[in-house]
């Protein structure tokens, strides 16, 4: 038997990453879908809301020009009454006025009612029919056989006047404008063409050309009105989106403020709840570590007590750092400002950390400028900044490395502090990480002495409270330098000496009058001597 065919290995290709569409593309796609749906449900190929607004503007235009149209109809009826019998002219005038009154009343009713898609279609049809009757009435009077004696120029002028007025009034409803002007133009063109003369052929062509021009003009007016409505709708939509975004942002801000208050309350409560048992743990563990009440039966218990005490101290320091950072972020950290010596604080911190650095074989160099005046600052905050920076340098500097502490003047007249080490350094793309709360770089994660990632953020925020600058420079496998500057406003310069001599405590003898400088020969005790 032949061996079974081996099953082919199926290799699954990595799926191509599908990029999520941006907010602008999603908004544009939703707008296109909405426009397509609106065009399918609309009778004019536009949005239903735009149909109602265009009809509203059409009705308002008709009402605003109602007296002008009425005057035109009456003047035409009177003029034609001179050329034909008065009764037909009066009948035509009455019919035109009836159509005009029906148009006006329809416009008023439409404006008073609430618009809906169904009602908009009904009113649109009604307006088109009324405009068609309006155009047919004008056609009837212009091609009346009795008016053959009237010159073609006057008829052409009257036709152009009727077409122009009708086109302008019905520009927001192009189909109504066409219904009102096409019967007049076509009838006049046929009337001119039936005479058979060349001049009348030219007039017929001019009539059709005038109809096309005014229809195109009405279409352009309709397009500009439609563009204005679209711009207004987009503006309203943008305002609505902005208001919605503002409401969302306000709600998010309120939630953030509530969360911040809850965090502050939680930290304040937990600090009390944690410090109370920690004090007992630290106290009893120190007693047990020091063997105050006698030696332990098992010597390893002393080591365990030391570990408990060290862990408690570490936890207490961590709690204090978290509380300090929360107060700084909440804006509740108050500076206890006084006149302090920057060089003195740095030297004290060096003395405190010297034993720890010596145990790791690290040499700390001091480069201080002498005779520097004091700073107006918070001594505890500056001490905490120096200790945080120095402890970080000792932590990440290898055995046998070096650290430089510098303090001096800045170019603007302020004072600066610099802590530079020969440690492992920080990658450039991780500098913003280590400056963030609880942020740790890759070297910190690999280090055996991991911290909470709060030392640098606390130091930076404390310097910001003093109005100074905090600059972190680092190169991988070369070292790190942190430069802290204080503004000149915090430097307490010594007062300049007085340029004038101080006034004497007693007036000189030369300044006394002559009569006061003469010796007095009378005895001091002259009372009762008679002299």
From TrEMBL:
Name this protein carries in UniProt: histidine kinase
Recorded catalytic activity of this chain's protein: ATP + protein L-histidine = ADP + protein N-phospho-L-histidine
GO MF term (any one): phosphorelay sensor kinase activity
Family matches, as CDD domains: HisKA (cd00082)
The organism's taxonomic lineage, starting at the top: Bacteria, Pseudomonadati, Pseudomonadota, Alphaproteobacteria, Hyphomicrobiales
UniProt source species: Bradyrhizobium hipponense
Class of enzymatic activity (EC top level): transferase
Region of interest: Disordered: 1-44, 497-531
Domain Histidine kinase positions: 269-490
PANTHER family the record matches: SENSOR HISTIDINE KINASE RCSC, TWO-COMPONENT HISTIDINE KINASE
Key words, A-Z: Kinase, Membrane, Phosphoprotein, Transferase, Transmembrane, Transmembrane helix, Two-component regulatory system
Top-rank lineage group of the source organism: Bacteria
């Amino acid at each position: 038997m032949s061996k079974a065919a081996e099953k082919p290995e199926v290799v699954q290709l990595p799926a191509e990453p599908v990029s999520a569409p941006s907010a602008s593309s999603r908004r544009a796609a939703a707008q296109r879908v909405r426009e397509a749906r609106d065009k399918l449900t609309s009778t004019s190929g536009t949005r239903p809301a735009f149909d109602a607004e265009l009809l509203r503007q059409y009705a308002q235009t008709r009402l605003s020009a109602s007296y002008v149209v009425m005057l035109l109809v009456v003047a035409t009826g009177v003029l034609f009454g001179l050329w034909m019998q008065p009764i037909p002219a009066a009948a035509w005038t009455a019919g035109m006025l009836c159509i005009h009154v029906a148009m006006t009343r329809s416009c008023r009713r439409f404006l008073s009612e609430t618009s809906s898609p169904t009602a908009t279609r009904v009113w649109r049809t009604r307006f088109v029919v009324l405009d068609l009757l309006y155009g047919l009435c004008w056609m009837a009077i212009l091609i009346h056989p009795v008016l053959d004696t009237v010159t073609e120029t006057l008829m052409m002028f009257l036709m152009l006047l009727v077409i122009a007025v009708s086109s302008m009034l019905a520009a927001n409803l192009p189909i109504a404008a066409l219904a009102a002007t096409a019967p007049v133009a076509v009838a006049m063109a046929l009337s001119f063409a039936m005479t058979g003369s060349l001049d009348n052929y030219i007039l017929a062509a001019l009539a059709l050309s005038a109809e096309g021009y005014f229809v195109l003009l009405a279409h352009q007016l309709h397009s500009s009105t439609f563009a204005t409505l679209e711009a207004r709708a987009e503006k309203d939509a943008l305002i609505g989106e902005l208001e919605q975004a503002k409401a969302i942002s306000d709600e998010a801000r309120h939630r953030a403020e509530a969360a911040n208050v809850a965090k502050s309350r939680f930290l304040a409560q937990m600090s009390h709840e944690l410090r109370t048992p920690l004090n007992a743990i630290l106290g009893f563990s120190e007693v047990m570590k020091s063997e105050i009440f006698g030696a332990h039966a098992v010597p390893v218990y002393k080591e365990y007590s030391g570990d408990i005490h060290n862990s408690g101290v570490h936890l207490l320091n961590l709690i204090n750092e978290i509380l300090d950072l929360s107060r700084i972020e909440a804006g509740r950290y108050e500076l206890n400002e006084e006149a302090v010596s920057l060089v003195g604080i740095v030297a004290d911190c060096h003395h405190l950390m010297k034993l720890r650095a010596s145990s790791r074989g690290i040499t700390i160099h001091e480069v201080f400028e002498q005779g520097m005046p004091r700073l107006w600052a918070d001594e505890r905050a500056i001490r905490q900044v120096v200790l945080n920076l120095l402890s970080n340098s000792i932590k990440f500097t290898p055995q046998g490395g070096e650290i430089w502490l510098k303090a001096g003047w800045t170019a603007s007249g302020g004072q600066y502090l610099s802590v530079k080490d020969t440690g492992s350094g920080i990658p450039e793309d991780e500098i913003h990480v280590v400056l963030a709360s609880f942020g740790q770089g890759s070297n910190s994660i690999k280090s055996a002495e991991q911290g909470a990632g709060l030392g640098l953020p606390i130091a930076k925020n404390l310097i910001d409270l003093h109005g100074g600058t905090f600059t972190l420079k680092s190169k991988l496998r070369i070292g790190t330098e942190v430069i802290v500057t204080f503004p000149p406003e915090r430097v307490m310069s010594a007062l300049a000496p007085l340029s004038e001599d101080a006034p004497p405590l007693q007036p000189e003898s030369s300044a006394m009058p002559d009569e006061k400088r003469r010796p007095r020969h009378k005895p001091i005790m002259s009372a009762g001597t008679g002299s």
